[in-house]
Structures are given as C-alpha cells and as structure tokens.
Amino acid sequence: MLLNKIKIVLQYVMPKHAVSRLVGKFAAAQAGWLTTKAITWFIKKYKINMAEAKLKNASDFKTFNDFFTRELEDGARIINDDTSTLCYPVDGEISQQDDIVDDQLIQAKGFNYSLTTLLGGDEETAAPFQGGKFSCIYLAPKDYHRIHMPMTGTLREMIYVPGDLFSVNPLTANNVPNLFSRNERVVTIFDTKKGPMAMVLVGATIVASIETVWAGTITPPAGKDIFKWHYPATGVDAIHLNKGDEMGRFKLGSTVVATFAPNMVEFNAQAGPNTVTRLGEHFADLLN
Fold it and tell me: Is 91 a catalytic residue?
C-alpha cells in the first residue's frame, strides 16, 4: 500500500530524536488548559478507558506525562499469585514470542534480530539466554504504560543502549530490519529463583523518556555511549522486586522484550502473536 510505504520512508528521513525531545518537552510541561485539551483529545482519539484510572478527568493531570503514566484504581488489575507461574508485565499485544535460536529472535516474517545486539553487544551478557525463550509485547497508545515484574527477582545490571527512535508498531516491525536492536533501549537483568531474566524497554518516536523505579529517568543521557550499572545481590542497596511490582514506565509508549534462560519457562499455550495481554494474567509457567 502506497500510504504505508510513505510512512516507512518518512521514518527514515525525519529527525526522530529532535521531534521526540520537542514532544517530550511539551509532555512534561504544566501547560494548563492546553495540557487538558491535549489529554481530552487523546482520550477520545484512542478510546482510553478512564473508568479504571485512579484519576478520572483530563483536568486532574498537571502534565501530559502524568496522564500517560496514569495510575490505575486499586483492583483494576489482579496479579496472578501462583508462584509457579509468571504474569504478563504490561497491557499490550504480543508481537512475537518463541525460542531464541542461534542468537536470533523473530521480529516479523522475514526479519530476525540479534539477542546479543539487543542486550547491548556483549556476548557474555547474552550467553545465559542463548537457547532460551523471548516474548515481545507492544504497548499501543491506549494501553496502561507502567511496566511490572512478571516474576520475583533481584536486579543485577542495567544497561542503557543509545540508538535510533523508529516508531514501534506492527507496520515498522514488518518493514524496518533490526527494529528492536537498533532503537534506543534500557536493558534490565534480574536474577530469579529459576535463572536470569532480562526485561528490555525499547524506546520509539516521541518516547520522551524511559524510567525505572530505582533510578528514575534513564533516557536520554548526553552522548552515544553505552552505560552500565551493577547492583549488589544482598544488603541494604540490593533492589529486590516481587511479582507484580512496578519496575518502570514509558512516557509515550513502546515495547517490552522479555528474555529467559533455557529450560526456565514455558509460555501460555493459548497465547502467541496478536494475543492481547493484560497485566497480571497468566503469561508462562516455570519449569522444574
């Protein structure tokens, strides 16, 4: 389709970082009636279910970011408390999920991308996940944009990987090679009772920033270098998060890629590409 081809070409030529930072400034601004008007338009355009939000009205939010990362009412999402299962970390839709084979993850039909590159380019970092499983979940504009833990874990490492800011949606996933491993992203690696788990928060066009609960805003730092932070396994400075706990949030949407070690999990057999996910529901089973 010609329109789709034009959209893809524009993705390559537009100044994505500049546009994203400009939108980010507005999203973070307390612009009064203008902020309220933008939120009202967004609610109508994307059919946001404000009944499940803690704050119900557009005028309740001081900034667009406050609205976009809105908190849900207590009880709006129920976390599956079965310790032998994982829960979905976000509301969204599964883009792809499958085995990791020869360092490759499926992006779309005809497109694979490298696990090692996704996790920042270090083979040692990627090694524990080779031969394991991955799940890629896309968050649409209408979705709840806080990210929660699919299982209990202790943070070992966080990696900021600079990159491009292509839009992340089904159209670009099917047309832009290496989309998730070329976009800006934050890689978080947790140790769990069954093995290592990586949660990769992928940036996109007009994603003003990515936050984690332990470090606040991670992107965008200055420069094009990869940054790494290491965390203790025990003691007062250890970061331990339980299943269902919030671990981060997107300011203006994107995608989460979760990777698991071999023989660690088996995904819900009823789910696969295009399955709508809901935070807290059955994601996978832990293997003995």
Answer: yes
The question of whether 230 is a catalytic residue gets the answer no
The owner of tokens 């730092």 is 221
Residue 191 is a catalytic residue:
no
Q: Of the residues 91, 95, 135, 181, which is catalytic?
A: 91
Identified catalytic residue from 66, 143, 148, 181: 148
- Whether 273 and 218 have beta carbons less than 8 Å apart is answered as no
CB proximity list for 84: less than 8 A, separation 6 or greater = 285, 286
Domain range annotation of the chain? 2-68, 85-286
Query: Positive or negative CA dihedral for 24, 198, 191, 193?
Result: positive
Determine the 3-state secondary structure of 263 from DSSP: coil
pTM assigned to the model: 0.91
pLDDT at 124 over 70: yes
Tell me the one-letter amino acid at 72: L
